[in-house]
Amino acid sequence: MQNKLPAISVIVLAIMAAAWLWLGNSQSPSPDKSITGQRLFPNLEQQLNDVGRILVEHRGSVYKIVKNGDQWQLPGKGGYPVLFERVKPLLLGIALLEIIEPKSDKPENHARLGVQAPAAESDSMRISLYTEADNAVASLIIGGIRGGLIAGGKDGIYVRVSGESRAWLVAGNLDLPQQQLDWVDRQIIQITPKKVNRVTISHPDGTSLTVGKQRKGAVNFSVMNMPEGSAPKNPEQINLLPRGLTALKMADVRARPADRPPESEAVTAMFRTWDGLEVKVTSVAQNDQLWAWFDLVKPGTSDPGDLQTRFAGWIFQLAPSPASRLRARLSDLDDAELPD
Q1: 126 and 40 co-located in one domain
Q2: Which of 71, 159, 201, 239 sits 20 to 30 Å CA-CA off 52?
């Protein structure tokens, strides 16, 4: 005859079993060694050459990067060229993501891992890849990143494949652009003051300011159209004006509109270099923002050859500080202190 457990023991065992089941379901599953080291998207690396569109959702913004021939572009910025050096590492980085272990599949735990659906108030980012025929290739939500967590210098990254509830800890390295302009080369032009011979800034009211050097190698620039009787100007401030095209960067970019303001309503700055290069910058103030377009008036012997291509069809928003050098007046230059 078999021994029977007391009723109280059966109740205790039932409670313990229920607790064990609850804990098991509330925590991440135990690592499955059979999937560790597998690619999150096993076939993606072989499909990378077919990718023709990248869709990014981040902080309430949705934008895309598309491939047009051999050039990647930002449609949301008038088709401005994207740096391939930003596209290639990201695509390859996604393709090489390796599974470390599964994490929670419960929606209430997604925010803790940063893999909740992208929203204006969250840091999560969804990246979706499509072929040029608009077929979906891969889509994932990227959450928290723990730098250097994995051996070999790889980061530990929490991700979730779009449409699936399971989150994963994967190993890899992803350089994630945070906004559209992070995909482009923000530098518009680079001409150092050493190369500049003369700068002429003309205003709509007919006034102008010209600064230049009498000879190549001179230390300071000087005002070359100083009105008679005017006090000498501060050399340090004069020397700032030829720096107007030194590593000049954009704050934004858009296609150059056909109905842009006429140049008679804009400020123009003409830069001439010692080797004959002439670049004209035309700027207008719109809604507390400064927008400018650039024209290659005359190539110089050291012209890299791509300036006109870089300028053509675009109007750039400039940061206020360097842009002020492109719109200066004589009255903006402080009088120099005369010696006793």
Answers
A1: yes
A2: 159
